Amino acid sequence: MAVLIQIRDAFKRYGDQILLEAAEAALVDDVKVGFVGRNGAGKSTLLKVLLGEEELDKGEVIHHPSLRVGYLRQHDPFVAGESALDFLMRDSGMPDWKCGEVAGQFELKGAYLEGPVKALSGGWQTRVKLAALLLHDPNLLLLDEPTNFLDLRTQILLEHFLRGFNKAALIVSHDRAFLKQTCSHTLELSRGKLTMFTGKIDAFLEYREERREHDRRVNATVASKQKQLQRFIEKNRANASTATQAKSKAKQLERLQTVEIEVDEPTVRIRPPRVQPRSGTALRCVEMAIGYPDHRVAERINLEIEHGQRAAIVGDNGQGKTTLLRSFVGSLPSLDGTMKWGYGCQIGTYAQHVYSTLDERLTVLESLEQNCDREITRQEVLAMAGALLFRDEHVNKKVKVLSGGERARLCMASLLLGTDNILVLDEPGNHLDVETVEALADALLEYKGTVIFTSHDRHFMRRVATCVIEVRDGSAKNYFGNYETYLQAVEQEVDEGERQRNLAAGKPTGKAPQAAASKATAADYRAGQQDQRRADKELKNLEKRIAKLDQQKRELDQKLSSETNPKEAMRLHDELTTVTAEMAEAEERWLELNPF
Question: Which fold has domain 3-204?
Fold first, then answer.
């Protein structure tokens, strides 16, 4: 495997913050890597370094001579009036038939391909950019938050594209479900250090917690030994007959060191608004139409949302999810029909248009205290500010100097410090890192009120949603199924669309027709028999290997449980982690090959 990019002894500082310190990593030519870390850790900066847009203060980045980087641009590269096809031909220099073929992988056809590209929604424009990437034939993709603002269907298409892309990728994302589907390795940037883990995001997070727990146990053992030695020294150093022993124990005490446990920030804990639970209908819509005077987005909307439900609004971009949410909160009047909230409903809104309502003269702390429940203490306000990433001197920043993401987090903090029993949230996870999104999900699960929300984060949707409302084909309806059911339905639609495109292009669909299967030749049969013998042999070898690894694992577990030397314990733990990963890989392969 060729190393496409090698990062050596990288050091990068911004003001007082060290983003990279003695950082090392390598990206090889056929591995897709999920790049994770806290907001502000320096992930985007490292991408800029890899692209040559910024320089390291120290260290080097070595590029392979054959490296061809494809970078998903966040800015708008389109020219006014040009179609998606025009852009693809201009950007790649490829003929129209080739551009159309690649665009088809992202369902770009008809008006989406030939109409004005600037008139497309953000999700469809991202599809055009992805098609442009592919036309340049890169062998390393650098994607910075590629799922931001993408609808579910586009996310699935992107996943399918990446799984079929047999070259390298480095993907920055807070979307755990997306990383799990696309990346076999995980790279973490924490406290200036880069750590490459051979495994998916879930396995990495589990490994990281296991390592920290192990470090805690080692530290507890070392601390206990230190106390024991200290008592012996204090008891015996004054006696002439035992002074030599006391000196020996003192040297031993000096050598005993605890392990520094690497944690990011204090565990995020978000408390939900304190409200009294209610029952009955929270919202009822009858024959409602939404949109604008010159454009009806959806009509014939008949919905009911009960108190206590957490209703997820789903649908492709451009179908009207945000329009529906704005109609619910009254910022966009409905065009027809009726919409009625239940008695005693107090509605809190989190949406992009709310950010502009903040008083720019106030500090973060003053803004929160002005908007919070009167019974909330300053300590609780500070705790909420910290949970939404406003810590230490950041609570004294003026609103007028806050970035868009910081203003969004401030609005979320204000909302959660209030007393509203209905929360209407448009993309609440944007501008938050993984840990904070998890904490927000925990808070919404604990919340006794009603939540109506939309999100592009599937992990968040799975955790939070209790019911689903689908906006599609000019209407909005209660979906008869949970979010998992909806997700499977969209997956099937995307799979069927890809199958039809493959059929039209004369490519294999993965499902051979029965008639074709009946015409297998003798050569095919012999080849099948040979494949079966090879699989049987591999199965037997795997069984022997799994048994051997299992024995090694038991021996390492036994040694680790009795080891008190922290360095040796760390070495044993690393060896155990490697053996466990190898065993899991072997077992997974065994399951693939086992005919039963």
Answer: Rossmann fold (3.40.50)
